[in-house]
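User: quick one, sequence for these tokens?
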């Protein structure tokens, strides 16, 4: 069938998908590709849809984008080159470079020497299983285990299995390998004679895995702050792992940040995929049985169940010193337990330390920690002690562009966001609050204002909801920070995925990745609105927040995601962000590869948004990732001559691409003059990055991007 016939069959005005194998004849877009588009210091990388930065007239956009072939590669601007620094399976410390690398913490120690701290977030079962034997060099009994667990649909509570159960060894083998591929890694980089960064083996290189300290107690992580009192409590409502305030491993490490004194903060985000999230009123954990082990085709989770891990010890901010492999990693509980995605540290001599972080869930909150003591010298590593004591606060946004910080303390008044604010905007979101039965762990969903009013009459302050005395009471609140913040009226937001401080203005930049509602919550529709006032905007924003007085702030949306014809900049779902010394914004995106096979935005990408004093948005694509990946971890070196990116989960949906595996998509696009036209798009299924040979397994990895002439990124 001819391509035009396919397009006709798919129909005007819609998006269709046909799967095919070995289709030929689709070509990459052509058109005006010479010179640098006005306003940008590089030739923007072409994306699959018309954008303002492509430099094309409306008629040129139609002819250029009518047919397009997506490629399975990392694409950078003309005159730039990328270099792979490390990928899954490479030797790192006493272990290996892990899977699904996310945040990158670049700390430069000298002009030609640096460390890179890498987060390893989760396991994408399809490419991990497919590539394990080739990458790691030994077989993985995954298929045999799937077969052995078939009778229970791949779900089993390992804590209830008898010691002699024949499946336990298979479970432990698979779980050990998966946990080894999670956590944190530190690798050393050096600059070669051409100015390019490369790996350099050094004693500082290390791995902290999901089970560090399980068999070697000296490798266990430390905990500081009020929740350590919860961990040490002798009497508790829930589960006791017997370790006191020590912790086995770290996992679900997603976002993060660096401190001005050279340590790295790693954020434990979706820990609930491996251990139970709910806790009791005293902060103790629900039993591991509440999150059983899952192993079936395409799925692997509940790994904490295999080892009897306590869920309340995950979901924290972890501090690592990349200069010392012997320095114990620390979980700072004063910063709260929630699905941490981001962290930004504001350190000024003579003032308290301020730490900003977000909870990446639909309806998650934005937090600020203010230290009890003050910073003396900004670059002094002793500043790390300031994370141990202070006040956790949470943001309440107002629709008029103002807001305030609420203290998450026992005295805080219970006054939740009302469900009617969702229903009045035609959103079916509930409000999630700590369970009314305080003998039960976890949350309860409220859909009526009357029920919330009754809740407020029953529980006046957080001290009525949580149990303990002194530090233990504050610790119980911090262990359950998301629900405690919801109870006192924190604004539910649009999945805050990153926070960065503008070096020019001092403002806080926050990436909110999506305003789509979920089954347990959603974003305040009065604050998080689309360009035309839509109450549910799936494409995200970057917000600019300015502190005002001791506990107030003002805010505005600085960048809006979405298609240009709908009022967006041309990308969707901003995730990590970085700011260079001039205040230009670098954005990487995280469109779900599982959500829609026919998404108009195509592969995830990295965008450059130049600083503008007039508030007018403009941006250009700097890089696009390979198939089915997330582009994340964006950061720059001191000279701003190298930009680092993490290519996470290439081939996440379809795994390794075989020769010719692809699908045909039809998309309805709009040119810059408002003209509607149809695009026929050829899209590979799966990935072979970085080997780029058919049948080779995709491997998550870290790349450095430089100008070919060695000049700074923003200089021709």
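Assistant:
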């Amino acid at each position: 069938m001819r391509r035009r016939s396919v397009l006709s069959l798919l129909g005007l005005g819609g998006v269709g998908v046909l799967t095919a194998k070995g289709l030929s004849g689709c070509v990459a877009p052509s058109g005006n590709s010479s010179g640098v588009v006005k306003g940008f210091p590089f030739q923007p990388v072409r994306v699959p849809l018309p954008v303002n930065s492509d430099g094309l007239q409306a008629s040129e956009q139609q002819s250029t984008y009518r047919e397009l072939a997506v490629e399975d590669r990392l694409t950078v601007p003309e005159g730039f080159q990328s270099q792979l620094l490390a990928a899954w399976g490479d030797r790192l410390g006493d272990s290996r470079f892990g899977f699904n690398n996310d945040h990158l913490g670049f700390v430069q120690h000298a002009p030609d020497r640096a460390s890179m701290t890498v987060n390893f977030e989760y396991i994408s079962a399809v490419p991990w299983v497919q590539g394990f034997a080739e990458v790691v060099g030994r077989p993985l009994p995954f298929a045999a285990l799937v077969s052995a667990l078939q009778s229970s649909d791949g779900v089993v509570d390992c804590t209830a299995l008898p010691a002699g159960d024949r499946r336990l060894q298979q479970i432990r083998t698979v779980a050990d390998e998966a946990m080894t591929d999670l956590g944190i890694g530190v690798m050393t980089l050096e600059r070669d004679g051409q100015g390019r960064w490369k790996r350099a083996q050094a004693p500082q290189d290390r791995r902290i895995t999901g089970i560090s300290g399980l068999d070697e107690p000296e490798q266990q992580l430390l905990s500081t702050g009020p929740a350590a009192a919860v961990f040490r409590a002798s009497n508790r409502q829930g589960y006791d792992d017997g370790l006191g305030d020590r912790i086995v491993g770290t996992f679900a490490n997603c976002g993060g940040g660096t401190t001005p004194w050279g340590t790295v903060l790693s954020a434990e985000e979706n820990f609930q995929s491996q251990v139970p999230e709910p806790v009791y009123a005293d902060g103790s954990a629900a039993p591991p049985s509440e999150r059983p082990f899952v192993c079936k085709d395409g799925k692997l989770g509940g790994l904490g169940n295999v080892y009897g891990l306590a869920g309340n010890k995950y979901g924290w901010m972890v501090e690592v010193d990349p200069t010392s492999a012997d320095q114990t990693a620390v979980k700072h509980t004063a910063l709260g337990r929630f699905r941490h995605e981001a962290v930004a540290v504001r350190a000024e001599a003579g003032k308290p330390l301020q730490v900003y972080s977000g909870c990446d869930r639909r309806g998650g909150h934005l937090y600020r920690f203010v230290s009890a003591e003050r910073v003396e010298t900004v670059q002094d590593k002793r500043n790390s002690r300031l994370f141990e004591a202070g006040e956790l606060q949470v943001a309440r946004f107002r629709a008029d562009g103002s807001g305030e910080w609420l203290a998450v303390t026992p005295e805080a008044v219970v006054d939740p966001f009302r469900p009617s604010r969702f229903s009045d905007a035609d959103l079916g979101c509930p409000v999630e609050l700590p369970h009314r039965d305080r003998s039960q762990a976890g949350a309860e969903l409220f859909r009526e204002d009357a029920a919330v009013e009754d809740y407020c009459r029953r529980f006046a302050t957080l001290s009525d909801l949580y149990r303990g005395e002194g530090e233990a009471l504050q610790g119980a609140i911090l262990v359950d920070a998301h629900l405690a913040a919801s109870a006192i009226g924190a604004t539910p937001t649009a999945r805050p995925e990153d926070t960065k401080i503008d070096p020019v203005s001092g403002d806080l930049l926050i990436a909110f990745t999506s305003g789509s509602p979920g089954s347990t919550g959603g974003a305040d529709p009065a604050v998080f609105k689309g360009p035309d006032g839509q109450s549910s905007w799936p494409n995200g924003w970057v917000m600019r927040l300015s502190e005002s007085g001791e506990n107030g702030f003002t805010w505005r949306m600085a960048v809006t995601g979405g298609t240009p014809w709908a009022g967006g900049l041309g990308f969707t779902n901003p995730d990590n962000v970085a700011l260079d010394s001039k205040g230009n914004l670098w954005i990487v995106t995280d469109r779900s590869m599982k959500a829609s096979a026919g998404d108009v935005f195509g592969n995830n990408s990295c965008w450059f948004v130049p600083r503008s004093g007039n508030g007018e948005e403009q941006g250009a694509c700097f890089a696009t990732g390979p198939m089915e990946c997330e582009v994340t971890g964006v950061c720059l070196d001191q000279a701003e001559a190298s930009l680092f990116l993490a290519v996470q989960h290439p081939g996440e949906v379809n795994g390794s691409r075989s020769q010719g595996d692809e699908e045909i998509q039809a998309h309805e696009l709009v040119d810059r003059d408002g003209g509607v036209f149809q695009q026929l798009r050829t899209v590979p299924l799966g990935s072979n990055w970085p080997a780029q040979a058919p049948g080779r397994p995709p491997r998550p990895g870290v790349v450095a991007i430089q100008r070919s002439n060695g000049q700074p990124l923003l200089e021709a």
